[in-house]
Amino acid sequence: MNKKRNIIIFVIILVLIIGAIVGVSIYLNNLKYKYELSTIQDSEIQYYKLEQDGKYGVIDKDGNVVLQPTYASIDIPNPTKAVFIKSDDGQNYSAVDANGSPLFTDYDSVEAISINSITSNIPYEKTVLKYKLGGLYGIMDFDGNKITENIYNSITNIDYKEGNLRVEQNGKFGVINIKGTTILKPEYDAIMADGYYKEETKYENAGFVLRIVTDDGYRFGYADKTGKIILDTLYNEITRLNDVSGEDVYLVTSSNGRYGLYKNNKEILANEYTSISYDSNNNLLIVQKDQAQGVVDLEGNNIVPIDYDSIIIGGKYIDAQKGEETVVFDAQGNNLNTDIISYNPVSDLAIVIDKNNNYNIVDSSGNKKLHENYTYIEYFNNNYFIVTKDSKTGVIDGNGNVIINLDYDAIQAIDDTNALQAIKTDDNTTFIIDSNMNVHDGIANANVLKKDNYIKVFSETEMKYYDFSGNEITYKSLFPNNTVYASQSNGKWGLVNSNGTVVVPYEYDMVTEQNGNVAGVKKDGVWQVVDINGQLVSDKQYTLSWLDATFLGEYYKVNNSTNGTVYSGTVQD
């Protein structure tokens, strides 16, 4: 009896040990796929690229020259670190420190890895570099430690997939991550990220579209973010429905000119459709077979029969036309007896469009709230609606009361704020409307720029600042630690200190706010740079074609750079 019990105990312990080993193995394996992307705020940047007369160097955050502009190119992959990638000829690259001394001399070359500037404010991989040794590439960290061996013919970024790198071996491509983990073996002729994006996770959950070349042409497949093959390379085309949220991946496939749908690797719709388009408002698909259209949901269930000449989805309503007849369905496929062809719920109301293309607002019972028709209505927030009639635009509330007269040629929301921007085109004046629907004084020929925590409205001669609710604020309230601030008097600009004492007299057509320890001053179309004591930094004079000038040291920020932030000392002709 004891022997039997000991055997049972032994088996239980053995199972627990095996389970623990398997669990640890799975945990360690998963760690290979997890990595931290470095995010760098503008306030953390220590170094900037400097250009002068076609040559490049480096300046620090105070505008001091760190590396003289003597190089054919300079890359600053992580501007919080003094690791700079320079080239004397534009072809051979190496790393130097803030003294210009060589770094990582054990390698034949060292390069930054560029990424798409849409993905990050710093357009480089910020934790790894690629090195070359013996004609082959690997990746290493910023201390020079190897992450992979030099086994690749090339290493490049994958657009919209920071932290993942496309690697090449013998003419075939695969994917590794910045920890060196192989995501996809180099077996494909091309690999692209699918572009899936969500605000919380950015591009982290994007997968990969794979391509091979066959005797019959290109064939595409799909792998998830970990490299797991979801669909083999059998299709003429594959597109992910990127607007569908959640863990499941929905893929539209094409084969021999016909389209189908997969949910992960499960077939939802066979490849028998002429076209498939996705409506993200209702998670519905408009499908077409030859000349007939209908609607199905993401599980393949029929919502509207494939029996109509055309389908248009307006908000929560589906307009199905056959010949001269239009039938309106709701998103569940119920036939509606209504003259409304578009229904967009907003708050506890809805914006509707009738068959005569007139807009209105209805309550939850379908009662129309407006007594006159508008040619356009758009919900803003707090029960306010932007409306257009007779080519003029204003704001009403949900009961139809006019809050802002229809005196403007355009009104639009400023993204991710509670403020509106209004324009009158006859004198090209821009106004800011705050969340309480107060219209602030306008600026002619103005630009509107949304920064991290404020809105800037500026022209050649004026500038104003607003918070995200549209209330006018001072620059001093945003940056109380600055030494000097732009100030206007009698149509001229100068600089004052925090006590209001004039540091630079009111004699300029425009000035900039302080950046680092300097500010720009403009007179007769020419910019110069002064320090916080009002003294000229240099005798350089710049004629700039853009209004939003920024200076650091004696240098101006180049606004059209796609290669990170660049300052220049080149004097424009």
Structure description:
The structure is a single chain. The chain has 573 residues and is mostly beta strands. Among the domains are: 276-337, Beta Barrel (Thrombin, subunit H), CATH 2.40.10; 481-573, no CATH class. Strands 3-2-1-54-53-52 form a 6-stranded mixed sheet, with no helix packed on it. Strands 4-5-6-7 form a 4-stranded antiparallel sheet, with no helix packed on it. Residues 24-29 have low confidence and may be disordered.
> Uncertain regions: pLDDT < 50 for 5+ in a row?
24-29
Structural class: mainly beta
Cα(first) to Cα(last) distance is 100 Å
Query: What is the beta-strand fraction?
Result: over 45%
| Overall strand count | 54
* Gyration radius over CA: 30 Å
Q: Bin the helical content.
A: under 10%
Number of alpha- plus pi-helical segments: 2
Average the pLDDT over all residues and give the rounded result: 92
Largest sheet: 6 strands, mixed
Query: How are the strands ordered across the major sheet?
Result: 3-2-1-54-53-52
Q: Give the overall shape.
A: flat
Structure keywords:
573 residues, 47% strand, four-stranded antiparallel sheet, 54 strands, mainly beta
The gist of it:
By secondary structure, the chain is mainly beta. Mean pLDDT is 92; it is low at 24-29.
